[in-house]
Amino acid sequence: MGKIRENIICTNGKKRAEKLIEETTDKKPLFLCVGGTTETAKIPGLSMAGKNPEITDYTPTADLEIITQGKPITIEDVPATPQGIPTPALLTKSALDLAKTPKLPVNAGMKVKPSTPIIEVNEDSGNSILEKIAVKHPEQIYKNAEKTGKALAKLADYLIIGETTPGGTTTALGVLKAMGVNAENKISSSMPDNPHEDKIKTVKSGLKNSNLDTGDLQRKPMEAIKTMGDPMLPAVAGLASGSAKFGPTILAGGTQMTAVLKILAEKDRDITENISIWTTRWILEDKSSNIVELIKAIRDIPLLAVDIDLSKSNYYGLKAYEEGFAKEGVGAGGTLIETILKTKVNESAMIEKIEQNYEKLVK
Amino acid sequence: MGKIRENIICTNGKKRAEKLIEETTDKKPLFLCVGGTTETAKIPGLSMAGKNPEITDYTPTADLEIITQGKPITIEDVPATPQGIPTPALLTKSALDLAKTPKLPVNAGMKVKPSTPIIEVNEDSGNSILEKIAVKHPEQIYKNAEKTGKALAKLADYLIIGETTPGGTTTALGVLKAMGVNAENKISSSMPDNPHEDKIKTVKSGLKNSNLDTGDLQRKPMEAIKTMGDPMLPAVAGLASGSAKFGPTILAGGTQMTAVLKILAEKDRDITENISIWTTRWILEDKSSNIVELIKAIRDIPLLAVDIDLSKSNYYGLKAYEEGFAKEGVGAGGTLIETILKTKVNESAMIEKIEQNYEKLVK
């Protein structure tokens, strides 16, 4: 895997990535974190973004509180997998702390509103993709978000857009499949043991319940979201579309962001010139998924990944990232890359900050 | 009245105003417009920010839609006084169009949410000041807004904060009186014929119903808002407090902003060093109110007023501003001043743009 800078790996679009890194080094971005919840996350076996499926309604709420208010407020504990591995919001918070990056949370449709000022582009949480309608008004969410993206892009050198959406890899698979992208067994999970079968089974049932075959909605991204997606997807796509007219726009996340890329590629192909995905090495190393091929199959934009080694950590909850737990989310990879580009802090300083936040919030 | 620049008048804090103008000329501000509604606006005789008291619930909704989406969406018509004089949002929109100023709407507590992405610092509309509790959680609104102000101040050279709150002059009077500022007959109105008696009677009843005398809450701004205010006041004060730590912060409005100034002066006197009020000449010329004296009584910060002559307009709805209708609101004065400082457009170009928007939206 090609190292493009200290602690940054580049696998796709290397030539454009070099230019992108020049354009984003020592600049002042704005980090947007988009929260969404769905009933899809509560289908047994799919989401590990919480100790049990019901609590996934609170995961984005707490994630957004951690990055804006410094700690969870609505619930007591930091969100964690059933094994107790804490949310990547800890990594994001550490990155934002180090780089002093301005951040704003965005509500794309959350069951439980966080206790923080928030930009609202939609109010309604998503249904299950097993129902006919998973997201009621994707076009309205997209338009609202696009306006927000335009307005906010003027306020920063570039935008980094992260997300927190339990069950989001299943809805991403649903949208990609409806749009004809061969994504089976390529979508990641917050578990080392990726529950592909459960996800594929759910997506197939969802398509069937909506009378759809794979690829039926190839040119209809909003229909694909409506039947098989989640409210985060049109929100992130809209924000990116509004922002990418003005300059570099970073989708900060793992394989879910390939669904956003597919939506954007169909909505307005030219816009993807300014889009790249920034993620973590744990996503690249995940043998149960393949973000590199997914991006190539859609549009070969630059893919950067932050390379920090948490096996050196003193805490099992962080070491576990090296075993494939959690891996990415809440814009962790993207904000860590930004921190490297802006502050030139080294790996051990980043790990130290992450451990500090772990001690403060988890222990 | 002292002209400090072409089409800009300065009455208070001239020395600091000179420095402020240097600091804000050719800079890139962000305009925030805060919407709030209250039951106070529906007390007969108080608010003219709508054709009838009940419709004032929709006025901030439409105002925010006009400045962010270009036209009212939730209701059909542009808000107007009972005489048909249109909202100052037309002037604000014209200023923002000319200067291409980035803008974000803020929900401080609105009965009807606008159809636009919005930053939410509070959800609950205000009660009547005749009730014991007019605003449920002013401290929470203030804190939410303060965090938002801090985050947004980092994204712009300076912040301009406007508001749209029907009945807001009565609640401003209520807060000022509760805090011991002699504001009777000094607070403005959107009518040439200022209903002072009705306002004073309402405020006196409100104080009585809360077992308060004038000045009882001199050092307790949050208590004053809770019993006698509206949700816009802690939102604007909080945004300004968060922003003023970083640089110049403009309260864009008329006499209502003196209540915000009083709140800030009690919360954190040092902060007011960076605060100024930008308004319109129509407020200065209003013989039924006295913003200059109000500011002097609280803290003598710079007061600038935009001086454009709408008597030259072809439309009665705009000419009427010269007769004392509407006068100010939705940050009209502040955004017009910013437009002059940034674009150097002259008076006739501004009037032409306002007439264009009048033709498009009102006629």
Describe it for me?
2 copies of one chain form a homodimer. The first copy, chain A, is about 40% helix and about 10% strand. Chain A has about 375 residues and is α/β, with parallel strands linked by helices. The first copy, chain A, has a 9-stranded mixed β-sheet, with helices on both faces. In chain A, a hairpin with a 2-residue loop joins strand 1 and strand 2. Chains A and B meet through strand 4, strand 5 and helix 4 of A and strand 4, strand 5 and helix 4 of B. Strand 5 of chain A pairs antiparallel with strand 5 of chain B, so a sheet runs across the interface.
Protein topology:
The structure is a homodimer of 363-residue chains.
Chain A: E1 2-5, E2 8-12, H1 14-24, E3 29-35, H2 59-69, H3 89-99, E4 103-107, E5 118-120, H4 138-153, E6 158-164, H5 168-178, H6 196-209, H7 221-228, H8 232-244, E7 249-252, H9 256-267, E8 275-280, H10 281-284, H11 291-298, E9 303-306, H12 316-319, H13 332-343, H14 347-361
Parallel strand pairs in A: 3-4, 3-6, 4-5, 6-7, 7-8, 8-9
Antiparallel strand pairs in A: 1-2, 2-9
Helix pairs in contact in A: 2-3, 3-13, 3-14, 4-8, 5-6, 5-7, 5-9, 8-9, 9-11
Unreliable spans of chain A are none
State the distance separating the first and last CA atoms of chain A.
34 Å
Largest interface: A-B, 22 and 22 residues
Alpha plus pi helix count of chain A:
14
How much of the sequence of chain A is in beta strands?
5-15%
**Which word captures the global form of chain A?**
globular
Spatial order of the strands forming the largest sheet of chain A: 1-2-9-8-7-6-3-4-5
Gyration radius of chain A, in Å = 18 Å
